[in-house]
Amino acid sequence: MVVADPGEDVAEEIERLGDVARVVVEAPMGDLQSTFKVSGYPTVYVIDADGTVAGTDLDALALVGA
C-alpha cells in the first residue's frame, strides 16, 4: 500500500492500513506511483501467483474474478 503524503497528517491512515498491508509513504507521484501509473485513489491491483499484474482499476469490485 502506498500512501501519497501531500503534507497532511496521514498517521491515522497509515495505522489503519498497517494492520492489513505493508505501507510505504512517498510524495505524490513518487517512484512507485509513477512506475505503476497510478491515476487516482484508491488504485487497486491484482497480482497473480507469478507476481504479474493481472488487473488494475479504481474500483476493487471491478476486479472480482481478475
UniProtKB/TrEMBL annotation:
Which Gene3D superfamilies does its entry note? Glutaredoxin
Tell me which InterPro entries the record gives. Thioredoxin-like_sf
The domain of life is Bacteria
Question: What's the protein here called?
Answer: TlpA family protein disulfide reductase
Per the UniProt entry, what species is this protein from, by scientific name?
Answer: Nonomuraea turkmeniaca
